[in-house]
Amino acid sequence: MPLSPLVTLAQSLGLAYASGISPYSTVTLVGLMERAGWIGPLPGVLGALAHPVVLGVAGTLAVVEFLATLVPGVASAWETVHTAIRPPAAAALAVATAWHADATLITLAALLGGGLALATHATKLGLRFAVDASPEPVTNAAVNVTELGVVASLSYFVWHHPVAALLIALALLILVMVVVRLVWQRMRQLLRRLKPTLKGSVSN
After folding, report:
1. What is the CA radius of gyration of the chain?
2. Which of 59, 88, 114, 197 is the most exposed, having the fewest neighbouring CB atoms within 10 Å of its CB?
3. Angle at 133 between CA 129 and CA 138, to 5 degrees
4. How far apart are the C-alpha atoms of 123 and 118, rounded to whole Å?
5. DSSP string covering 166-196, please?
């Protein structure tokens, strides 16, 4: 039975959202879930995600990313570099998801998917810079595990309840945006309070 355009678009944007967090984890988890029979069969060219070579490359990069983002300083650098990687990768996955649909829907999937991934990545980047201010790996690890849980949940539910999964993801994105803004406001206030003390210490 052919999928409705709304469902196809929701699936495309769901994968784009997850890719805005980590395209490597998204590809790995979707491919593994398809091979395990938890989802799928994946539509059109998206079936390539379950290929052993694709899974091997994506899985290796996902592990490298997880380990790199445990290290304060390295995490921020990694996230900054991926500003040029995640949105295009997300747009490509969105297009692959909608490839069986008409040209209009494919174009919408590319445009909206890339934009959503950019918003997701930018929010994650702000959160990572705030978390990276702490010199220990515990908070980084907690964020890593949380992100992996979000990607895994979305990678599964976007195929079973696509519209609901996307709406929940968007609500979560808005919530994280608000939290990031509050954290940065709090950090600026703290720095303003510490500035006179720091100046006094330097002058002494």
Report:
1. 19
2. 197
3. 100
4. 8
5. HHHHHHHHHHHHHHHHHHHHHHHHHHHHHHH
pLDDT tens for the 204 residues of the chain, in order: 457 889 999 999 999 999 999 999 999 999 999 999 999 889 888 999 999 999 999 999 999 999 999 988 899 899 999 999 999 999 999 999 999 889 999 999 999 999 999 999 999 998 888 888 776 778 889 999 999 999 999 999 999 999 999 999 999 999 988 888 887 777 677 667 666 654 555 455
CA distance 88 to 94: 10
Q: What share of the chain is helix, strand, coil (3-state, %, to 5)?
A: 85, 0, 15
Amino acid at 188: R
What is the C-alpha separation between 59 and 112, in angstroms, rounded?
26
Of 28, 32, 23, 34, which Cα lies nearest the Cα of 114? 23
SS3 98: coil
Token digits of residue 29: 């988890």
Distance between CA atoms of 197 and 35, rounded to whole angstroms? 59
pTM for the model: 0.87
Residue keyed to tokens 């703290």: 190
Domain ranges of the chain: 5-203
